[in-house]
Amino acid sequence: MWYRAKLVIGLVLSFLFVFLSAAAQDQIKGKVIDKITKEPLEFAVINDGEINKNILTDNKGNFVLKDRTADSAFITVSFIGYVIRHVKIFPESPFPIIIEMEKGVLEMKEVIVNSNAASNTFHTLSNIDLNMQPARSAQDLLRLVPGLFIAQHQGGGKAEQIFLRGFDADHGTDVNVSVDGIPVNMVSQAHGQGYADLHFLIPETVAGYDFGKGPYYSNYGDFTTAGYVAYKTINVPEKNLVKLEAGQFNTARIVAILNLLGKKAADKQQSAYVAGEALCSDGPFDYAEHFNRFNVFGKFITPLGRNNKLIVIASALSSGWRASGEIPNRAVAEGYIKDRFGVIDSAQGGFTSRTNASIKLISTLNKNIRWENQAYYSNYYFNLISNFTFYYFYPQTGDEFRQHESRNLFGYTSRLYHEINFENGRLISSSGIGIKHDDISPSYLAHTIDGSAILNYIQLGKIHETNLNGYIDETYQTGNWLFNTSLRIDYLHFYYMNMAPASDTSAFIYNGSSPFAQKTIISPKLNIQYSFNNRLQLYVKTGKGFHSNDARIVVANKGFQILPAAYGADIGINWKPLPDLFINTALWYLYLQQEFTYGADLGDQVVAPGGKTKREGIDISLRYQFNKWLYAYVNVDLAKPRSIGEQKGNDYLPLAPTFTSTGGLDVKCKNGINGSINYRYMHDRAANEHYTLTATGYWVTDLTVSYTRKKYEIGIAVENLFNIRWNESQFEYTSKLKNETQPVDEVSYTPGTPFFAKLKCSIFF
Predict the structure, then answer these.
(1) Which of the residue ranges 17-31, 39-53, 293-307 would you say has the lowest mean pLDDT?
(2) Does this chain's domain 2-104 share its CATH topology with 123-764?
(3) Least CB-packed of 203, 311, 644, 715 within 10 Å?
(4) CB of 330 within 8 A of CB of 337?
């Protein structure tokens, strides 16, 4: 019996020894970082030569190689925009392998269709575009999103009008925009619901961006119907930078980025830098814009112990301008003004400022759990003078009006990420809660004269708006399948105190209305993807989203349709049919309970929600590398936007795009010569519900050429290379010029920029 016991004990100990030895050598841990900044690279591709399998790094740049049998092996590490590395590994190494990557040219051959459970289906596309297409301004950053178009129509300081997936999203009503977790969209804004002024973002500080189309993303709530765009600023500058730009129309710009800490700090994962931007331009208009903008940005990062990282951000924007505004076609044709760059009301223009502050703590509770907490604050001031209808409503004094607000925005978000690995899959759980409170006092729309004197208030009040939200998101990945399901809940509380005198226009609108309203909306989402291999992926997305209504409309309508929902579905593919070709395409459908663009302009005194709408379309994006230095991209986006319940022929959605396309060629040579020539095309579209008026389409071509060396860069950028005549923004207005006896209903427009060249010079140190 003792012999048998010894035998059993011996077998158990042998098994434990073999098991522990296998466990010790079964996996190898590593980390991929940027060689200069020491920042981790998320979604770097690790090709394991022994088993010919690709894995991706996590948000900390970490990876694990399992099922090791050989004494040593080579792995290939690649990341979009970096030089490929071949690394020999040894399973017996007791420490994680640190792999440093150097920036290089984009190699499409190394791009794989990303099947990582922590990224969305557009991640690969956004990474390619950020490497291929240079961004000259905050507006160019928005244009990086395939199918997203913008238009400026009240001077350079006003937020751009946004078009995406068959939406005229006004200034952000249906597109959620954020920077480093700070919301850009503003609820119940004086000029329009969801107003997204991105001008506080300095393009040179942007490290990357993420985007999604449709209402399928649980961590993005209000305004996420057509989609979202989220930007991330750099954590550690690669170099110090001073950039000078000068061009036509008295345009000048200076940008500086200064790293406040050295290499030793980067090795300790510490970083601190400041950036500044100053811009001035008169624009192409006969009445000079005198546009000026000043930005400052700072970011500080430091570890707190081994498992915590603190990120502190502060920024400020100040901007002022004069505007020529929209002009009706007849004003030029009849000689009322000398040309299309003339002005009718020279008092138009504005001033805006925004100050942001954010503090974020990222805590690693263990190897599978991460907790993020962020608190942020914004102070915003807005003053805009406009006149679209001239002498239609007020023949004696004119129709000039002012939109004004002063806002304090407070917010807090907390997110928890948990990952569980199984033998044949893994489960990624994400949950979050948040609160955002907007305090706007005062907010008003006033009839003015000469840009200063207030004749009467159309609206005057105080707004408090609070959004409480939470979500649960579960993603299970097994084999080639990925299943994602989530549930989001939003509670919004509205308060609007009407402060206008009883004799003013708004008195009857709010008479008898409670100043309070509230509503809760639940948004479920389900996304499925199947990756056939590293070249082909099929995905299906379904979900519910919403955009909130302006507090003034909510109160005036006694809480009717506070949070109109959007229901959408996508079916699409990511495909690499050739080593140098990447294709993304999707068929999509979106139903909206209420089409909404807030009519805060003079004369829009009757407050009523819009009707139901539907949109369907197809998005196509292609990226191709011809050779080592020449790249091409094309985006084609088709949409059919229609009102529901209207007679055919009267169901058009004014200004909604139906056919847009962007594309171009990018050159990146080893000798430092680089540049691009690209186009953007928007087809003719309906300017009113009956399509009796047309918003004219355009094709504009831009060119950039640069010569880049280690210490400097020089170049030229040209907008509208062929100097075509085009209209940037177009609206249907019933207007009346000073000497006219009857008003006229026609399209008014802001002329697009003519040929515009500027030189640039950058110094790196």
Answers:
(1) 17-31
(2) no
(3) 644
(4) no
Helix then strand then coil, % of the chain, to nearest 5: 10, 55, 40
- CATH of region 2-104: 2.60.40.1120
Closest CA to 619 of 678, 650, 661, 590: 661
In the three-class reduction of DSSP (H, G, I as helix; E, B as strand; rest coil), residue 151 is classed as strand
Report pLDDT digits (tens) over 455-512.
988 889 999 999 999 999 999 999 899 999 999 999 999 999 999 887 666 667 787 7
Please say whether the beta carbons of 582 and 625 come within 8 A.
no
Q: How many CA atoms lie within 13 A of 183 on its CB side?
A: 29
How many other CB atoms are there within 10 angstroms of residue 616's CB atom?
A: 17
Express each pLDDT in 282-339 by its tens digit. Answer: 999 999 999 999 999 999 999 999 899 999 999 999 999 999 999 999 999 999 999 9
CA dist., res. 55 & res. 482, Å (int): 15
Residue listed under structure tokens 């924007």: 317
User: Can you list the alpha helix ranges (DSSP code H) found in 374-436?
Assistant: none
Q: Where are the domains of the chain?
A: 2-104, 123-764
Q: What is the DSSP string of 503-535?
A: TSTTHHHHTT--SEEEEEEEEEEEEEEEESSSS
The contacts of residue 640 (CB under 8 Å, 6+ apart) are 166, 615, 616, 617, 658
Return the C-alpha torsion angle 731, 737, 743, 749, nearest 10: -10
Domain 123-764 has CATH 2.40.170.20: yes
